[in-house]
Amino acid sequence: MPARSDATPRALETLAPAELEGNRLARKGTWVVAFVADWCPFCREFLPEFSGMAGRGFELARADVTSYDSALWDDYRIDVVPTVVVFRDGNAIFRVDGRLGEGLDENDLSKIVRAASSPP
Predict the structure, then answer these.
(1) Structural domain boundaries of the chain?
(2) Cβ(24)–Cβ(15) under 8 Å?
(3) Which pTM was predicted?
(4) Alpha-carbon gap, residue 103 to 82, rounded angstroms
(5) Which CATH number is 13-117 given?
(6) From CA 64, how far away is CA 60, in angstroms rounded?
(7) Which pLDDT belongs to residue 90?
């Protein structure tokens, strides 16, 4: 995994579904959002590494798709969790989908950090 910052990882904010309606994030700035489900072992393994990306100049949050009834599955065309989307000023600019039976790896995290850290 990419090197962690020295900052102690803090609890991730869980975004309300209303903040993610219409394939847009209702927040300004650069946000990296992990779409995760409590029942997913790859999500549970991924979240501590994801939280470790704090303090790199962008905000982190999670979107809970534990319920198959969540509209976020369809709104964001999620097939596998975890899925991570980088938003800049509300618009999705980058996405990495987990792989079935594997989740995400350190190469994926490196791509996420590069996308979130790139100039607008």
Answers:
(1) 13-117
(2) no
(3) 0.89
(4) 6
(5) 3.40.30.10
(6) 13
(7) 96
